[in-house]
């Protein structure tokens, strides 16, 4: 399959200036797959009403079919068709954070979306992205768009056009080219089908930010039985680069693990203020400015992980792990999935 590329960067402030939008619209309406930029990561968009389009999403990604997709909308009115109830607290959160990097799991109103999109669950995850290109496209197409991250299943999520192209060229109908995703990690997923609400996947909107808007405490990840997958996606190995990655909290810890071994094929992924102290032969890769720069680390993490596999001069990496807090929950969750389990757990 030939994958078309549309570079819409010059039109980001007003997509209607682009002469051939109807082609994109047609492809979505007819069940084709087009990847699109969002502020979190690039998504692989498909018409959520079309059973075969959604089946193709799972095939193109190589994703297990019991892992449900998030539905992307441009207006809250669209939710009336497929959400049976919006709790008052969820409405407050939508008012505060939409459009933006948070998805809500809500009770499903059956019969509108195709069955495959929910993986058989009676709930549905919904999100309204803020990205200028992504948002305008959703408006233009005016359909509920199912959009998982536009990567092969098990690979790090894509934050640039190149990442999407690398994984999915030849497997989907098209890719819309935008800039690097601003947030860099997937949206927060908040399960609103239970009280207290529960973080099913941490993201840029933190538990603390959510609690500042509503009057209930939110259940953080890790507060429930670890063996029970919260979001179904959590049970699969995710986000992993080929290069083995070990999380450390200091440079000394990396040095102790390295022992007498040479540093020449090793990357140290650390905040910039560590650069002058790294061993001569190691490759320094910048994670962010300093230990307080969580936003920068979120923005860079997937790009750094993609870079590791692209570089033949690196065969292992140590990455700086942040201390646990609401703000670092998202980056540490992704980093732990990217890290090599046996090494990270010291087994
Ligand atoms: O930022 C994002 O959310 C990106 C961009 C493209 O919008 N999308 C994304 O989709 O990350 P995906 O499919 O890669 O991740 C969706 C996550 C999975 O962990 C899935 O298991 C969970 O949301 N999920 C979706 N629907 C669910 C449901 N009804 N109940 C529980 N978990 C659900
Ligand atoms: Mg994903």
From TrEMBL:
Entry EC no(s): 2.7.7.87
Subcellular location per the Swiss-Prot or TrEMBL entry: Cytoplasm
Keyword Ligase: no
SUPFAM superfamilies: YrdC/RibB
Keyword Zinc applies: no
Catalytic activity: L-threonine + hydrogencarbonate + ATP = L-threonylcarbamoyladenylate + diphosphate + H2O
Primary location class: cytoplasm
Boundaries of every YrdC-like domain copy: 18-205
Listed InterPro entries: DHBP_synth_RibB-like_a/b_dom, Sua5-like_dom, Sua5/YwlC_C, Sua5_C, T(6)A37_SUA5, TC-AMP_synthase_SUA5
Top-level enzyme category: transferase
Pfam families: Sua5_C, Sua5_yciO_yrdC
PROSITE patterns xref list: YRDC
Record's keyword terms, sorted: ATP-binding, Cytoplasm, Nucleotide-binding, Nucleotidyltransferase, Transferase, tRNA processing
Chain's role: Required for the formation of a threonylcarbamoyl group on adenosine at position 37 (t(6)A37) in tRNAs that read codons beginning with adenine.
Family to which the UniProt record says this protein belongs: Belongs to the SUA5 family.
Descriptive protein name: Threonylcarbamoyl-AMP synthase
